[in-house]
Specification:
This protein is mainly alpha-helical. The protein folds into 3 domains: 8-246, Growth Hormone, Chain: A (Up-down Bundle), CATH 1.20.1250.20; 249-329, no CATH class; 335-590, MFS general substrate transporter like domains (Growth Hormone, Chain: A, Up-down Bundle). It has helices at 2-6, 27-58, 64-91, 95-118, 141-170, 178-212, 215-235, 249-262, 324-334, 337-341, 344-353, 356-362, 379-402, 412-444, 460-484, 491-519, 537-561, 580-589; strands at 8-13, 19-21, 305-306, 313-314, 364-365, 367-368, 371-372, 452-455. The strands form 4 sheets. The chain has a two-stranded antiparallel sheet with strand order 1-2. Strands 3-4 form a two-stranded antiparallel ribbon. Strands 5-8 form a two-stranded parallel ribbon. A hairpin with a 5-residue loop joins β1 (8-13) and β2 (19-21). The radius of gyration is 26 Å and the shape is globular. It starts with a helix and ends with a helix. Residues 307-312 and 568-590 have low confidence and may be disordered.
């Protein structure tokens, strides 16, 4: 009997709702089936994002700035919907159903993309948009409407899949079992490796297929692979372990805000100990004096209690009464916002690598021998910069730190600062490279040849430098937001990170519109006209460099004033086992 009990996972059930048997459910087989969905999503996303601007400019004949904004709005929406996808999974659907449903939506989105790029009536007549003497007809509202519908249907699928895959993957391992706990740690290392391989395949093989075989084939492969992944995922229904949703931390934050607003006219009790705190909570946070207005969410009123003073009974409605610990957790999150706000600018720079930088590459020579590199495939140098930086840091820099009095290496705030610094260098270098490209374009004049006699490898510094910055700031942001978030709201760390990427994309679109309106005012020279050869993209890059200098100064000011949140659990030293916090940290990082 005891042997049978050991085979059961205490906090998980099988597909029938019975206690999960660890010998028949979960583990590597179940995790691999789940990973199949994620690798197909990552493959499709990067294949679409890095090469979309060339389709918008070259086939749909959109102006340069309009195409860039369409791409950044698409990317920002995808990351923002990942946050909302988590709310849907935790509040309404389970992770299993969220993955399955949104994987099918993802499939329909890429299928519609394949159809929209295949049908001649859904794109304008061909021409040469880089040739000034060529008259190009811009895509009409119907053609753009079908394309945008397909793209944003796809983003809905991305939001649901991305929000739940890593969490459902960790559900297949038992944190209370030492062996499975160690397996969970290796699961994330394997996960990170697989998705990076998927990204490389996307920006090389799939981009090549789109440019040289046809976009319908490229998008069709993405759709077929995701549909196959969904079927494989569905086949593992009986093999999965299912765990009860912990609830969405975003909803918990809203409950505190709503309760505080509803009780804004209620007086504070004379004794702070009279504020409500849930006795069943495992961890509690002592009261602080900042943002006292939120404390009203914990004030017990006559509508929240019944009975006499000796036998008080609390009627708990989380939208009217919240525990003091929950209120303090929301207060702690507000302390992260200055750092959060100063990391958005990096992702505005990152957005240029898949928008304007790809447009630059489109006008330049890209041959290695007889092979012509697709413009969007220049992003492989950014990915290479990320992976090489991570390898150097882990294999060379960290061993040096371990010999000093700082064995943990760079702090999360130091990593963020380094990432922001590299964004400045990247944009300064991009401005110089673009000035050189524009000088060649001016000397070339109006010719029918769309390719300028200047090598595309001139763009390598900006791709590589942004990749180096990405390696630092990605790890730094996740370390900061997760480790400094309240213990009861660790999942919100990933949400904060995703919103910085989304807002960075949206900020890029806003800056483009502002620059266009200001520089074209009173007959001025538009920096971002229809054709980038006629504009001053170098000045736009220089502007981004200046804005990032200001942003770095603000970050350093906020970082110096930042005080770590109280009550956080200090990270343990490296050991043979992966503890619960380390596992959760890796889960949210993916």
């Amino acid at each position: 009997m005891e042997e049978n009990q050991k085979q059961l996972v205490s906090d998980a059930v099988d597909h029938k709702g019975n206690p999960a048997d660890r010998t028949k459910s979960g583990g590597w087989v179940a995790a691999a089936l789940i990973l199949g969905v994620e690798i197909c999503e990552r493959l499709s996303t990067f294949a679409i994002v890095v090469n979309l601007v060339t389709y918008l400019v070259g086939t749909m004949h959109l102006p340069s700035a309009t195409a860039s904004n369409a791409l950044t709005n698409f990317g920002g929406t995808a990351f923002l919907l990942s946050l909302f996808g988590g709310i849907v999974a935790d509040t309404f659907l389970t992770r299993y159903w969220t993955i399955l449903i949104f994987a099918l939506i993802n499939t329909m989105g890429t299928l519609m993309l394949a159809i929209s790029t295949a049908l001649p009536n859904l794109r304008p007549p061909p021409c040469n948009p880089t040739d000034q003497s060529s008259q190009c007809v811009e895509a009409n509202s119907l053609q753009m409407g079908v394309l945008n519908f397909a793209l944003y249907l796809y983003t809905i699928g991305v939001g649901g899949v991305k929000s739940s895959v890593s969490g459902f993957g960790t559900d297949q391992f038992d944190r209370n079992d030492d062996k499975e706990k160690r397996q969970m740690g290796r699961f994330f290392d394997f996960f990170y490796l697989i998705i990076n391989i998927g990204t490389l395949i996307a920006v090389t093989v799939l981009v090549y297929i789109q440019d040289n075989v046809g976009r319908p084939w490229g998008y069709g492969i993405c759709s077929a692979s995701m549909f196959l992944a969904a079927l494989v995922f569905l086949s593992g229904t009986k093999k999965y372990r299912y765990k009860e949703s912990p609830g969405s931390p975003v909803v918990q934050i809203l409950q505190v805000l709503v309760a505080a607003i509803r009780k804004r006219n209620v007086d504070f009790p004379s004794d702070i100990t009279q504020l409500y705190d849930d006795p069943s909570q495992e961890f509690r946070i002592s009261h602080s004096n900042k943002l006292r207005c939120l404390d009203k969410a914990s004030v017990i009123t006559s509508k929240d209690s019944t009975g006499t003073c000796e036998s008080l009974s609390i009627t708990l409605n989380p939208w009217r009464l919240c525990s003091l610990t929950r209120v303090e957790e929301v207060k702690m999150l507000t302390g992260l916002l200055p750092i959060w706000a100063t990391t958005i600018m990096f992702w505005t720079v990152y957005a240029q690598m898949v928008s304007f930088s790809v447009q630059q590459a489109l006008t330049m020579e890209r041959f290695i021998g007889n092979f012509e590199i697709p413009p969007a495939s220049f992003n492989v140098f950014m990915i290479g910069g990320i992976m090489i930086t991570i390898a150097i840091y882990d294999r060379l820099i960290m061993p040096l730190y371990k010999r000093t009095k700082i064995p943990q290496g760079l702090t999360h705030l130091q990593k963020i600062g380094i990432g922001l610094f590299f964004s400045i260098i990247a944009m300064a270098g991009a401005a110089l490279s673009e000035r050189k490209r524009l000088s060649v374009a001016k000397a070339q004049g109006n010719t029918s040849n769309p390719t300028l006699p200047v090598t595309g490898f001139l763009l390598l510094p900006q791709f590589i430098l942004v990749g180096i910055g990405d390696a630092f700031i990605y790890a730094g942001q996740l370390d900061f937001f997760i480790s400094e978030s309240p213990r009861g709201m660790k999942a919100i760390g990933t949400g904060l990170f995703l919103t910085t990427i989304a807002l960075g994309c949206f900020l890029s679109s806003i800056l483009v519109e502002i620059v266009k309106k200001i520089t074209a005012r009173n007959g001025g020279h538009d920096w971002l006209p229809r054709r980038i050869n006629d504009g001053r993209l170098d000045l736009f890059y220089a502007l981004l460099a200046v804005l990032n200098v200001v942003n770095l100064v603000l970050f350093l000011f906020c970082a110096k004033r930042y005080k770590p949140n109280p009550g956080q659990v200090a990270p343990k030293t490296k050991s043979d086992e992966v503890n619960d916090d380390d596992v959760h940290h890796k889960e949210e990082s993916v």
